[in-house]
Amino acid sequence: MSRISLASNPFLLGFEGLDELVERAQRSSAEGFPPYNILQIDADRYRITLAVAGFAPEDLSVTVEGGSLVVRGRRGAEAGEREFLHRGIALRPFQRSFVLAERMEVTGAHFEIGLLHVDLERRAAEARPTRIPIDTPG
Residues in domain SHSP (predicted)? Predict the structure, then answer.
């Protein structure tokens, strides 16, 4: 079965990586932990909030890797063995990735009452036309 590429349109020059981008986004959406919200603050600012109950700020890392925002959580060893009657708070290690558009930058992250907030902003592109000179032989 042949697969139709999203970037097969001849007017979309330089978008060969679009298929890979869509696949990365689909893989990221399949992750279920931790739950998160995405808030659009205004036209160019966003906030991702992850529910990370049981994790301390030092257990978390926020990085930008290859055009993706990557949030990781890993708890240190708990002191002593405990016998839980019910364990509903997941403390397993996790990695949650978000594919970032071009010009999207992480502007900060802060931790508050079991929630990790990551702020993003879309930087304005230069919208000035560029004149291209035409060479002639001779």
Answer: 27-137
Task: Say what the pTM is.
Answer: 0.71
10 Å Cβ neighbour count for 118? 20
Per the structure block, which two tokens stand in for 126? Answer: 């230069």
Q: b/e map of 55-85 (b: 16 or more CB within 10 Å)?
A: beeebbeeeeeeeebebebeeeeeeeeeeee
Segments making up each domain of the chain, as ranges: 32-78+86-122
Q: What is the mean pLDDT of each run of 10 residues along the chain (138 residues)?
A: 60 66 62 89 96 93 93 78 81 90 92 96 83 79
Query: Residue 91 and residue 76: Cα distance in Å, rounded?
Result: 10
Q: Is there a contact between 48 and 97 (Cβ–Cβ < 8 Å)?
A: no
Tell me if residue 7 falls in helix, strand or coil.
coil
- Is 121 strand, coil or helix? strand
The answer to whether 67 and 81 are in contact (CB under 8 A) is no
